[in-house]
């Protein structure tokens, strides 16, 4: 047992594909690998916040399946987005009622993009909900989230795998990317072209950080799921779980990070 090890887990963005992170966290937990700090972008920030609050991966999956996320969105009368995320804060408030990074059970950092300055901004203290919303604010689709004087959008624009907040703090870093794309022989339409191009650009900044990870997990085949394909939530969870179980079996050295077997039961 090496209970003194500090383990960091960085979770990428990827829309609904981020549900696969929950399956990965479940499998890691069952092997006794539990993070002492988490960082996340976009969907990874949301999954990370709920996990750091103390919900188990299966509890978070149940919340996602039973929640009509889209009813919390409102049209935006704006040139910078077609939807407003403001009312999504009401949804997060149900599960993160303290709205405070300091009250999470596990430390969390989320990444967002300052669209005016062209810089990544990391949030790990103070109010919690608005930084999570900012981290998952898809440019063009949602109006930017304003925190102070900063206009913030999806952290994945500049950093879709925020390992930097874990460097120098954690002994080992596990990076998990939920955006691996299969080869595509036929670009069917403009939507397919744009979505694929955006994910490729985000993956580029993920892979540039791969070398900073001691272990890098990337469940294959998630590219076949749409960014908002919430009906496939259980499939995505299972994909992350199955892949991580296989990864652990094929890379037994990761078990050196385990602190206790069967830490996460359900």
From TrEMBL:
The active site is at 42 (nucleophile), 154 (proton acceptor). A motif (GXGXXG) lies at residues 13-18. InterPro entries: Acyl_Trfase/lysoPLipase (IPR016035), NTE (IPR050301), PNPLA_dom (IPR002641). Residues 9-167 form the PNPLA domain. Transmembrane segments: none annotated. Keywords: Hydrolase, Lipid degradation, Lipid metabolism. A motif (GXSXG) lies at residues 40-44. It holds the Pfam family Patatin. A motif (DGA/G) lies at residues 154-156. This is Patatin-like phospholipase family protein. It comes from Algoriphagus halophytocola.
